[in-house]
TrEMBL record:
GO terms for molecular function: hydrolase activity. SUPFAM superfamilies: alpha/beta-Hydrolases. This is Esterase. It holds the Pfam family Esterase_PHB. Gene3D superfamilies: alpha/beta hydrolase (3.40.50.1820).
């Protein structure tokens, strides 16, 4: 299961999925004999990556086979962004009912209807610009997602222009936690329960400063009405994990700080619970974010 998977062609095109105002491509991976009522994970690649690159690196299709999960990979096109980044900071692409978020919503709806997905178990994750777009999707369509996982990403509503986005990536010029929380609330007018959240960041990230993880945590602690102090802390595979739980002890937010890691997705590509293969922005650090995120979402229980 480790670094042996070089099947770049595991993903297939999802050609028809309603209107596509964001002009994105879509790929899917559906395990054989997927049961009705299976979960769906939406996976958003980072800059300079394709959907297939990210799947091979992170190993999501291996998790999908193991646990019986459908996968959807929205994919950026160079005509929209030269670096293949999702346009998380563009006003046209970070609001409900328009642009890239609406394209991704329509893809989700198509996969749900095609494969009988359990609507209570739709999740989303992404790296870097894909992590920032994960923030956008959780903000603009929180009623769709049971949980999200943001890897080396940014909070919702921090930037409206490319210069602002580049500053935020350095951790500079952020609105206050209260302002970020308000922007998240105002993105959808949502009143129901909010998605759970898993946050991953390398402490040595020089592309997206690790202070962005704290900005995301502050934004979402406010949404979930949680204290600043975590409910519990522990060490997993040598790295600190902090958890914020509700009054019933249900884990709502978790954060892994990967000590010394640069910009990328944390991987464990050999031994037990290993997935994916190392590459650009896919970093071998002896912990599989893919495995732990799936576990946090309860996918391993299916």
């Amino acid at each position: 299961m480790g670094g042996s998977n070089s099947q770049n062609d595991r993903l297939v095109d999802l050609n028809e999925f309603g209107s596509n105002p964001g002009a994105l491509n879509a790929k899917i991976y559906i395990p054989e004999d997927l049961p009705t009522g299976a979960p769906l994970v939406v996976v958003l690649h980072g800059s300079d990556q394709t959907a297939a690159d990210y799947d091979v690196g992170a190993g999501w299709s291996d998790i999908a086979d193991l646990y019986g999960v459908a996968l959807l990979f929205p994919e950026q096109q160079r005509v929209n962004n030269l670096t293949l980044s999702f346009n998380w900071f563009e006003p046209d692409d970070c609001h409900r009912g328009a642009g890239e978020p609406l394209s991704i919503l329509h893809m989700v709806e198509q996969v749900v209807s095609d494969h009988g997905i359990d609507r209570q178990r739709i999740f989303i994750t992404g790296l870097s610009a894909g992590g920032a777009m994960t923030s956008v999707m959780l903000a603009t369509y929180p009623e769709i997602f049971a949980g999200g996982a943001i890897i080396a990403g940014l909070p919702y509503g921090g930037a409206d222009t490319l210069p602002e986005a580049l500053l935020r990536m350095k951790g500079l010029g952020y609105p206050t936690a209260q302002q970020l929380e308000t922007r998240l609330r105002d993105a959808s007018m949502h009143e129901g329960p909010w998605p759970t959240l898993s946050v991953w960041h390398g402490s040595g990230d020089r592309t997206v400063n690790a202070s962005n993880a704290n900005a995301i945590l502050g934004q979402w602690r406010g949404i979930h009405d949680l204290e600043k102090k975590p409910s519990s802390t522990n060490i997993v595979n040598g790295y600190p994990r902090r958890v914020w739980s509700d009054a019933e002890g249900r884990e709502l937010i978790e954060e892994y700080s990967i000590t010394g890691m640069g910009h990328g997705t944390p991987l464990k590509t050999y031994g037990k619970n290993s997935y994916g293969s190392r590459g650009d922005y896919m970093l071998e650090v002896n912990i599989s974010s893919t495995h732990h995120i799936a576990d946090f979402w309860g996918l391993s229980a299916t």
